[in-house]
Amino acid sequence: MRGNRLYRRDLLKALAALGGLAVSGCDRLSIERHTRSVLDAANGLTYRAQRLLIGADRLAPEYGEADISPVFRANGSTDPQDEAYRDLAGNQFTDWRLKVDGLVEQELSLSLEELRALPARTQITRHDCVEGWSGIGKWTGVPLSEILSRASVRPEARFVVFHCADALDDGGGFWVDPESIRYYESIDLIDAAHPQTILAYDMNDKPLTVPHGAPLRLRLERQLGYKMAKYLMRIELVRSFADLHGGRGGYWEDRGYEWYAGI
Amino acid sequence: MAAVLTPDTPGAERRYRRHAGLVRVTHWINVVCFTLLLMSGLQIFNAHPALYVGERSDFDHPTLSILARPSEHGIVGETVILGHSFDTTGVLGASREAGQISPRAFPSWITIPSYQDLATGRRWHFFFAWLLVPNGLAYLAWGFASRHIGRDLLPRRAALRHVGREVLDHLRLRFPRGEAAKRYNVLQQLAYLLVVFGLFPLMVLTGLTMSPGIDSAVPQLLTLFGGRQTARLIHFAAASGLVLFVIVHLVMVLVSGVWNNLRSMITGWYDLGKPGATDAR
After folding, report:
1. pLDDT-based confidence at residue B13 (cuts at 50, 70, 90)
2. Contact A164, A82 (CB under 8 A)
3. Which residues form the Oxidoreductase molybdopterin-binding domain (chain A) (predicted)?
4. Region B1-7: what's the mean pLDDT?
5. pLDDT at residue A2 greater than cutoff 90
6. What pLDDT shows up at residue B12?
7. Confidence of residue B229 (pLDDT cuts 50, 70, 90)
8. Would you call A72 exposed, middle or buried from its count of C-beta atoms within 10 A (0-12, 13-18, 19+)?
9. B205 near B225, Cβ under 8 Å?
10. Which residues of chain B does A71 touch, with a Cβ-Cβ cutoff of 8 Å?
11. Which stretch of A98-112, A171-185, B201-215, B262-276 has the lowest confidence by average pLDDT?
12. Do the chains contact at A126 and B258, CB–CB below 8 Å?
């Protein structure tokens, strides 16, 4: 039937036009602020649902020695060019110290040797990059809870912020302030108290290499890779993110990624 | 499917209420969710366009990869499946973006957003995933409570014996008319069962398995699907299965009477044709 065929052609054209509209529309909607806040609601839901479902202490799966990735991909910063950092690395980090400050009763400044003398935990866990790939590594370090109990966190503190030595952008162009491109991350006190949340100094039984975050990095096994800050310099206890860089709690968060990365 | 017939006088058209309200509403919500989940999913895939088997990625031996490589004629798109390489320039691996061939696994016209932006792709994906699940659960709850699933979707034993003939009829584009059009045919029943109880649950469960948070709560998911990377591969395969279903579904809608089908999925009313009509066309 001729009539029907015409209808079909019109329908196909209409569907194609709708498709085109959807694509350009989604681009415009993606940028629009209101849409972003609506889409963000899903992330808030994910955070609350996972907190409810998982609870505070459920462990991430741990694996055996045979499962360790022969080559563990290093991405993000792999060779920080920061001058102070390069000096520290040149000296095998003997002058490096981890500072703990902010909303604590007792500020700390710990050398690598002092960290290694504290109680340690070793775990073989899977690292899931936000891009989609996974690697398995063996990590040894100090549980973050050990450090926080030594610093005595003040009751008004809500988040642990990790300040790092690396800067991902080259600092030219739009980002003029080198501090605004400095990597940083933050987690809540529930994840900070988790037994697998450690400050790792060893990977696969050897001291961390520079590409993997020497001398100290965060392992936060129930979240994605970008949360696990490398090249740690300072840990700060804060009430909110308002005064930190972009105000969203992390380097990638300031660039549109979710703060809670359990998914 | 309650049969409500208009007066059965000779020459009158017989209208039949084919789809219940809840089926229609959940169907169209599902159309929106699946479209946006697919397009944002391809955006997410583009961030690391390779699939692996097991818990971790063996970067040297992906099961599937869709990559770009330089050649003397410019960038070439290459799709590798189980070691077999295919040139897919223009569609997969390298395609036109803002006027020039750029390296990207899936082309910009099928991803949300069209430009490379993993963070925004994830936002769209998780938002519509949260919408998809209650929509599907509402359909299932209603489907069991109203016995729609048992009555309309489960094929009768007798019908299963006629699968062969049904396939032939479909290939000849001969579709039931009149009374026979009131029920789903056995191929429809099998396809819908596969989608409702196979592919969609598989999408949701493998999606959850990719979450490191969920893995700590339900590590059994990793055992069930053979590791996080296998879950990602199954997620991709099941999505491909759904795309195949949608293509066949749309073709069937088009060739078996597009307006009648669309009307019945929007208003519920399906035109059974003049009394005494046969399946002849």
Report:
1. low
2. no
3. 94-239
4. 48
5. no
6. 53
7. very high
8. middle
9. yes
10. 59
11. A171-185
12. no
Looking at residue A224, its pLDDT comes to 98
Cβ contacts of B31 on chain A, cutoff 8 Å: none
This complex has an ipTM of 0.88
Q: What is the pLDDT of residue A1?
A: 40
Rounded to the nearest angstrom, the minimum Cα separation between A163 and chain B is 22
Print the SS3 string covering chain A.
CHHHHHHHHHHHHHHHHHHHHHHHHHHHHHHCHHHHHHHHHHHHHHHHHHHHHHCCCCCCCECCHHHCCCCCCCCCCCCCCCHHHHHHHHCCCCCCEEEEEECECCCEEEEHHHHHHCCCEEEEEEEECCCCCEEEEEEEEEEHHHHHHHHCECCCCCEEEEEEEEECCCCCCCCCCHHHHEEEEEEEHHHHCCCCCEEEEEECCEECCHHHCCCCEEECCCCCHHHCCCCEEEEEEECCCCCCCCCCCCCCHHHCCCCCCCC
pTM of structure: 0.90
Structure tokens, A253: 């968060």
pLDDT at residue number B3 = 46
